[in-house]
Amino acid sequence: MAPPNFTLSVATWGNPSSSKNALLIHGLTSVAQTWHRVARDLAGRGYYVLAPDLPGHGMAGSTQSFTIAALAEALAPLFSAPYPRFDLIIAHSLGAVTTLQLLHILPPFSQHPAAPVNSYTRVLLLDPPLYQSPRTVEMARTLFMQDVASPRSAAQHMSENPRWTLEDAAWKELGEQLITPETIDHLFKDNSNWSFVHLLKLRPATQRSVYLTVLGADPHLKDQKPSFRVEQAQPYLNPRLDSGIVWGATHGIHREFPEVVVEHALRRLDERNAVSSAGEQAKL
């Protein structure tokens, strides 16, 4: 159940009558339209694509609490009528951590009334910050507060991120303009103990209903610190959970390599030639 007075805001692409449905969940200081390239690609492949604004972001309502659990609770209505059953979920950064929390509070996807027999949902998480030390949390809070207090222009974003398109940069500029410093402050204070690696341990019934992959940014890029490290996932790896790295990618994987994100999201689990297995890093 959504928190009281919370209003969902959802962007869509593709044909609502499609039998294939995808859900895309953005990260901190972004908006639903940040997925425009991934969403258009999926829509072109026959998917009906939905992307919500996280609480306090874009045109969505706010919530009294900004814990990861509260964010997940706010998005939980997306998994019941009138919304469709999702074959595919792709989530980035804060949205990826929120998605992991959703996997713990929702019934297994295979129990959805519209789920075919022996069906599963493909879940792809992009560079989720599963653990941050108190010092790192405070540093991140300060940096994001600065970004929101003085939003960068689209031109600045493009200068800092040469792989982005103008549309990528414009949506990011809008995202920074629409979120408030109070939301940033509450989010980091409400999650001051930023430790979510344990969420990779799924309930057996949920584990059977998903194929979960976690992809991190390139740890070797100069001045870049990926949010996710593959060794975090190693204790939890199993035939339905794997991890890997997108070489050459910074934190904004879906903006820099949308084609890689789509390719990997639609790849069968047994075609993991480009993804790490048993904790090994493999090049995409």
UniProtKB/TrEMBL annotation:
SUPFAM superfamilies (UniProt xref): alpha/beta-Hydrolases
Entry keyword Hydrolase: yes
InterPro entries: AB_hydrolase_1 (IPR000073), AB_hydrolase_fold (IPR029058), AB_hydrolase_sf (IPR050266)
Pfam family, one: Abhydrolase_6
One BP annotation, GO: acylglycerol catabolic process
GO CC terms in record: membrane
Keywords: Hydrolase
Keyword Hydrolase assigned: yes
GO molecular function: monoacylglycerol lipase activity
AB hydrolase-1 domain span: 23-263
Highest taxon listed in the record's lineage: Eukaryota
Official protein name in the record: Alpha beta-hydrolase
